[in-house]
Amino acid sequence: MDAAQQEATARARELQRSWYGEPLGALFRRLIEDLGLNQARLAAVLGLSAPMLSQLMSGQRAKIGNPAVVQRVQALQELSGQVADGSVSAAEATDRMEEIKKTAGGSVLNNTTQQTSSTGATTVRRVVREIQSLLRSVSDAGDIIDAANTLASTHPELAEFLRVYGAGRTADAVAHYEAHQS
Asked: Among residues 85, 65, 92, which one has the least CA distance to residue 125?
């Protein structure tokens, strides 16, 4: 790989970090490991071709162009966390991946506001994911950060909201949500 290609790859990975919270190669490798997949299976669940997945992982391509695929990535991240904490078994995860694969995106909220935990309360993580999905369906993380920077001097709290929910990690957004709900 020549210097220009290395620079382009580094730039793509930095864009991925700003848009998705980390380079897609790291995110996808974690999903593959946590969910017991291979690249071909992950590509199938996400609705990507294997070459496209490879290009995203290697930094040859920066952005996931299809919002439905971004939603499936978010759903797999949530599922991965549930597998890791033991709240979902491997068999249940396999079934859930088939459901995720069939989702077409459609409405960003997909009626998830009506899905509740066993206590009857909508989970904070689900609310945060809905906010993130809505923001990310309107604009990419780079544009959201630009908007936040524009607002920072006059509306710092709104700028922080945009940065945390529009371009940050879900864990940071959950912490922000919880801090501002008390």
From this structure: 85
Per-residue pLDDT of 6-32, as tens digits, reads 999 999 999 998 888 889 999 999 999
Domain boundaries, the chain: 1-104, 117-179
Positive or negative CA dihedral for 74, 136, 118, 115?
A: negative
Please state, in angstroms and rounded to a whole number, the distance separating the CA atoms of residues 34 and 119. Answer: 27
The helix or strand, by DSSP H or E, that contains position 115, with its residue range, turns out to be: none
At CA 78, angle to CA 133 and CA 67, rounded to 5? 30
b/e 142-164 (16+ beta carbons within 10 angstroms → b): eebbebbeebeeeeeeebbbbbb
For the stretch 138-174, pLDDT in tens is 788 888 999 999 999 999 999 999 999 988 888 888 8
**CB-based contacts of 178: which residues, under 8 Å, 6+ apart?**
124
Q: Where are the beta strands (DSSP E) in 31-179?
A: none
